[in-house]
Structures are given as structure tokens and as C-alpha cells.
Amino acid sequence: MKKTTRNIALLITILIGILVLSEFVFKRFDMTYDQRYSLSETTHEILEGIEKPLKINVLLGGELSGDYRTLKNEISFLLDEFRTINPKISYQFLDPSKDFSMETLQENGLAPAPVRTDKGILNVYPYAQISFDGKESWMETLVNDPALPFEQLALASTEKLEYLFMEDLRKITQVNRKNIGFLVHHDELGQLHMDGLGRALADNYNVDVFLKPVQDSTYSLQQEDLKDLLNYDALVVAKPTLPFTDMDKLVMDQYIMNGGKMMFLTEMVDAEMDSIFRSGKIVAFPRDMKLNEFFFNYGIRIIPAIVKDLEASKIVLADGETTAGNISYNSYTWPYFVRGFKADENPITQSINSVKFEFANPIELLENPNVQHEVLLATSPYTSLQPSMSFIELAEVDEINPQEYEMGRIPLAVLAQGNLKSAFAARYEREEFPNFKSETTEGKLLVISDGDVAKNHVLMGRPMRLGEDKYSLRPDNPKQRPVSYDNQNFLTNSIDYLLGETDFLNLKNRKLEIPTLNETKVKLEKSSWQMTNLIIPVLGIWILGIGMIWWRKKRFSA
Q1: In this structure, how many other beta carbons lie within 10 angstroms of the beta carbon of residue 398?
Q2: Which of 346, 372, 363, 355 is nearest to 491 (CA)?
Q3: Residue 230 zone, left/alpha/beta (φ > 0; ψ -120 to 50; rest)
Q4: Which residues contact 315 (CB under 8 A, 6 or more apart)?
Q5: What is the pLDDT of residues 286-330, one digit of tens each?
Q6: Cα–Cα distance, 234 to 180 (Å, whole number)
Q7: Contact predicate 335/396, CB 8 Å
Q8: Is 462 helix (H, G, I), strand (E, B) or coil?
């Protein structure tokens, strides 16, 4: 009896000790196979760096459908983890119909998501309000993926929640933002056509245009410009149409050698869709940008020809009249609007479906022991080439011969990185450049063989979202939404990668499996599972009771 008493006392002491220890030591164990509740190191760093109170109001507090209840639960789990890491973070769920006026919702551009239920249409507001240090912002808790049906967005968003929240928390708490500069003195894309990319990059970076060569009327970079250019963490050249001078190339070379990252979107053949629509056909003239030697140093050559692809985008054309006398419109494959699909494995393209190119050129990779090449985007296997100085006719939509498209996959976007060497290391120009550097470690240069990848279309004088295709719209259907491609995601991912933001790319690419019920199986097996859940607990208690009676009789009968 004393031994039993001591054992009970020891057990009580251990339990009390565990209870007291739990007040000072907190540890969660993520036992899920996909580690869905384990946050990335970048998330930990950002959350731990928040030194002032941060409040999150999630507008999912009212009546919800099943998918949105799942989304709400996942958000709650995630924000609990945030609060565990930093107690200065607080959150609550609010009912938009009760806690906000309709004027407030409309002023902040919060449009409801209409969800069909058995009771009718339910308006859900998938948004969150973030308040920090006197600043306020709104974010969507749904992913922006045009490729997904609207009904699947709620469940698809559950695997992106950490990225969605951390992207907005980074924006509102960020102090030291990296700088991105655009070179514009070679008649690059104008502001109206760069609106989409500029706005997308401005969410996370300081975006600026380097105007000095235009302001001083030299239209070429000078030695003294390098100091100013090094204030930019990355430089973007988007569809230049004028040749580069030797000094341009020397300054850009030294920018890369001094640790700068560059992204070139350029093409070597002049062909524009507007000209084809006006005249029906054009001559594809070669365009010498004087960049062959510059790219050759990094093992890259852009061939002056145009890629054609059977898996290209479609365009809408008027092709006759209907029986009612109206203009007839139909979609046709336009082989010159090729789509870029992911090629080599890289975080940039892991979540990319396809990127639209317009009159792209093929890229040839050259052997260079100092350069590591990664083909980010390539065509489908069903391709051919249209040489420069040849006609491109709109009538080709009716003359596609599949037997001519057998060239295989052609690279369209290539990343060159590694311990890069200067193209001017053995040239006399190095003597004229102070503090000349002949090599760099961890250099990065991204070359895309089409400037239109960064060009957002303009419809009725207004810029469209980058990746939305105005050529997919039917004039006889004003309510139709344009076909969308992943141009914006690809370019923003590329900048993130060039600037070392790979952790955020990994968050963006993260895949989680949210288990869902098989509704057919539920209906077929509902009764059997109900009986199982009713009988097994009762049977277990009955067996346990019989066992205890038998054990007591056996023990005390002696």
C-alpha cells in the first residue's frame, strides 16, 4: 500500500512539474508529412524583426461556405504561429456585413466573391486589413491565378497563405528596400507599356528610371555613370531598338563585375503586330543592336530569326459574316506568338504555366567554362524558324503545315551565372577605365529574346495587366475576359531571384495537399460509418468493464 501511495505521489509530482515547466517553455512539433505548419527562416526573420504592434483583421468572420471555412481555419493556424513567434502580432476575424460599412468596403476596392450555396448566392470578402506603425494596407487572401476556376481559388489559396501574408507584411514593415533601375536611352518601351511591370516591382522594390544619358544628350553611358548605376541592385533593359555603343557595353560590363545584376529583354528582328494588321504582311528586318559580342562573353547568342510554334497563342480574327449579317469572329493559332514553357529546374519557373512571346528569336548557348547556363523558358517541341528579310503574312493562320514544325524545343530565356569574366579583360579599353575589374563572383545575367514579354497591352487607352492578351478578345463579346499568361509572375520571380530573394520564391512555389472528402463515397458509406461510430465505443466500454470485473474477482478471490 505504501508503494502504491509513493507511486501516486511521484506521478502527481511529475505532472505538476510538467505543468510548471510548460509555463516557461513552449514547443510545437509539426507531425504533418508536408510540414505545412513549419515556417521558413525568412518568415521567422521578418516576424522577429517587427518591433511595434501589428494588427491583422481578417474579413472571414461571417457566414461562409465549406471551402472558405477551410481557408479561415488555415489562416487561423498560420496567424497563431505568427503570434507565437512575435507576441506583438495580433489578429481577429471580423464580419464585413456588421463591422464595416458598404462605403468603407467600396472605398478600399473590396469586391465580394459571390459563392453559390444551397441557400443562394453568398457574398464572401476574402481580404485582410493590416495596420502597423500608423500605416494601413489591404490584402487578398486568395491567390491571383487566372488559370484556376473561381470555385477552386479558396482551396488553392491554402497552400500559398504563408507567402500571401508575408509578402504584404514585408511591404508594410520593410525599411531598407532594394533598388531597381531601367535603362531607357535606346528607345526602350515607354511608360504606358511598362505600367504593369513597373507597378508589380514597385510593391517590393524602389523602381527608378536612369535618365542621365538622355538629359545630357549623349545617349550613351559614360564612365562617371557607373557610380550612380551601382546604387541600383539590378538593371533592366526592356526592348531596346537603338544600337549600344562600346562605352555602353563597357559600363554595363563593369556594373556586372562590381556585383550588379542585369536582365535584358531584347530581340534581333524588327516585327510588330500593329504593322501586320495595317497592311496584312510585313518584311521582318534584322535589327543589329551591337550586343552580339557582349552576350557572346557569357556564352549566349541571339539568332536573327523568328521562332514559330504549333503550340502558340491564338488570336481573334474577323473571317466573314454570320447568317444574320453580322461580322464573324474566330480564334486562330498564330505561330509567331509562341509560348515559353519551363525548361531547366529553377525557382523562377517552378510555378509558371506559360509566358507569351511575340516574334521571339532563338537563343543559342555557347560553351564557356566560367558560365553556368540555365534555360528558364523554351518553346514546345513543335517549332520552326522564319528567317529575317522574309515576309510575315496574316494569311499564314490558314497555311500551317505541321510537318514543317520539327525543330524541337528552342531556348527563349537563359540565365547565365557563376564567376563571370569581363569581356574587356584583354582589351585596351580597360586602361581607360579607373578601378577596372576583370571578374566577379556569383554574377547573374538574364537574357530574354523578346522585349514584348515585358510589354503590357493597351486597350482603349488604358494599360492592361501584364500578361493579359488583347488579341484574344472578341469584339462581339464585350464581357469576355482576356486570356492571361504568366508574364508578370515570371518577370517578378526573375527579379526576386537575381536579388537573392529565393526564400520568398520557395514560399510562392510551396505545395500543400489539403485533404477533401469524396462526396460520392460519403453518400454510399454514410450509414455504415454512423453505425461503426455508434457501436465500437459502446462495445469498447463493455469489454473494458467485463475485463475490470474479471480482474477484480481474480485478484481478491485469493
Answers
A1: 9
A2: 355
A3: alpha
A4: 331, 332, 334, 337, 397, 471, 472
A5: 999 999 999 999 999 999 999 999 999 999 988 777 667 778 888
A6: 5
A7: yes
A8: strand
* Number of other residues whose CB lies within 10 A of the CB of residue 126: 24
Quote the pTM value.
Answer: 0.79
| Bridge partner residues of 418 (DSSP) | 443
What is the C-alpha to C-alpha distance for residues 331 and 354, in angstroms, rounded to an integer?
19
Q: Measured between alpha carbons, how far is 60 from 57 in angstroms, rounded to an integer?
A: 9
Amino acid at 545: G
Determine the residue type at 421: K
d(Cα 84, Cα 271) in Å, to the nearest integer? 56
SS3 call for 130? strand
43 to each of 49, 92, 167, 382, 413, how far by Cα in Å?
10, 20, 10, 42, 30
286-to-70, 354, 394 alpha-carbon distances in Å: 55, 27, 20
Give Cβ neighbours of residue 383 (< 8 Å, ≥ 6 apart): 307, 308, 309, 310, 338, 405, 406, 407, 408, 409, 410
Three cell numbers written together for 186: 535606346
Which three cell numbers mark 216? 545630357
Report the distance separating Cα 429 and Cα 408, nearest Å: 41
Q: Where are the beta strands (DSSP E) in 358-516?
A: 363-365, 372-378, 383-387, 391-393, 411-418, 443-448, 458-459, 462-463, 468-469, 483-484
Helices (H), 86-194: 96-99, 102-107, 153-157, 161-173
User: Given the DSSP bridges, would you call strands 206-210 and 305-309 parallel, antiparallel or unpaired?
Assistant: unpaired
Closest CA to 199 of 501, 432, 456, 402: 456
| pLDDT value at residue 315 | 93
Cα separation of the two ends of the chain = 17
Arithmetic mean of pLDDT, 176-196: 93
Spatial contact of 133 and 52, defined as CB atoms under 8 Å apart: yes
pLDDT in tens, 391-407: 999 888 878 888 889 99
